[in-house]
């Protein structure tokens, strides 16, 4: 079984505390989501493999480390996942970006697919799927299945806030996927919202409510 990492970095915890506040406005919310994604990306890439190569410094030859292995891609789940892309790219500027469009039907809470555009060589990349919220897990589980159906094998999932229900569902549906969670909350409410959560992440990032 792949690993699940719940973030314990104080900067991440502090910033998540600020985005939870109902008085945090769109501009600050967007900036903070991007910063949290950057910090989480830093933590989530700790285990990337390195190889040693020889280079010339202006002084002499030296052995240095460089990232080896698969190239990376970031795939946000639209819309809210878009808020995490800039932060991810600050850490891994050469990553390619794919997009998966899904929204959660408010009645059934089931994901509805409306868009999918991935880098051509996605199947050979290590893919970070990003979405701030893992609630029932329906959307992220479906997005990862879409990637697997296109041949992607190395997938990691990153969310800022998870409900225990969604985390369990994700671990069961995709036991091969490493999961990175900023904060693990208490539960889902009767409308499928995370408690205490932060409300609707997409609406808060884009100011649509
Ligand atoms: O785990 P789930 O129960 O599937 O819920 C989580 C999903 O809900 C939100 O998206 P939403 O449907 O609000 O779309 P949006 O990003 O366009 O606002 C969120 O960004 C996740 O994608
Ligand atoms: O709490 C929740 C649940 C699903 N989607 C959100 O944006 N927030
Ligand atoms: Mg939304």
TrEMBL record:
Cofactor names: Mg(2+)
One Gene Ontology term of the molecular function aspect: uracil phosphoribosyltransferase activity
Activation/inhibition comment: Allosterically activated by GTP.
Pfam family, one: UPRTase
Superkingdom in the source lineage: Bacteria
Keywords: Allosteric enzyme, Glycosyltransferase, GTP-binding, Magnesium, Nucleotide-binding, Transferase
Amino-acid positions noted as binding 5-phospho-alpha-D-ribose 1-diphosphate in the UniProt annotation, renumbered to this chain: 79, 104, 131-139, 200
Catalytic activity: UMP + diphosphate = 5-phospho-alpha-D-ribose 1-diphosphate + uracil
InterPro entries to which the protein is assigned, alphabetical: PRTase-like, PRTase_dom, Upp_B, UPRT, UPRTase/APRTase
Chain positions recorded as uracil binding sites: 194, 199-201
Domain called Phosphoribosyltransferase: residue spans: 7-208
Pathway: Pyrimidine metabolism; UMP biosynthesis via salvage pathway; UMP from uracil: step 1/1
Family to which this protein belongs: Belongs to the UPRTase family.
Described purpose of this protein according to its UniProt entry: Catalyzes the conversion of uracil and 5-phospho-alpha-D-ribose 1-diphosphate (PRPP) to UMP and diphosphate.
Protein name listed in UniProt: Uracil phosphoribosyltransferase
Organism: Roseburia yibonii
UniProt gene name: upp
């Amino acid at each position: 079984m792949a690993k699940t990492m719940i973030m314990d970095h104080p900067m991440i915890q502090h910033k998540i505390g600020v985005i939870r506040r109902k008085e945090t406005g769109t501009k600050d919310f967007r900036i903070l989501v991007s910063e949290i994604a950057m910090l989480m990306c830093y933590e989530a890439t700790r285990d990337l493999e390195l190889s040693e190569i020889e280079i010339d410094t202006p002084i002499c030859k030296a052995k240095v480390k460089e990232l080896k292995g698969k190239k990376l891609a970031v795939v946000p789940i639209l819309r809210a996942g878009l808020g995490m892309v800039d932060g991810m790219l600050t850490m891994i500027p050469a990553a390619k970006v794919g997009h998966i469009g899904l929204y959660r039907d408010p009645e059934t809470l089931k994901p509805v697919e409306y868009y999918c555009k991935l880098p051509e060589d996605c199947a050979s990349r290590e893919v970070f799927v990003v979405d701030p919220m893992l609630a029932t897990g329906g959307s992220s589980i479906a997005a990862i299945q879409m990637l697997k159906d296109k041949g992607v094998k190395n997938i990691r999932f990153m969310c800022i806030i998870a409900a225990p229900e969604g985390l369990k569902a994700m671990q069961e549906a995709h036991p091969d996927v490493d999961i990175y969670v900023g904060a693990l909350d208490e539960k889902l409410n009767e409308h499928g919202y995370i408690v205490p959560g932060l409300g609707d992440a997409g609406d808060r990032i884009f100011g649509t409510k």
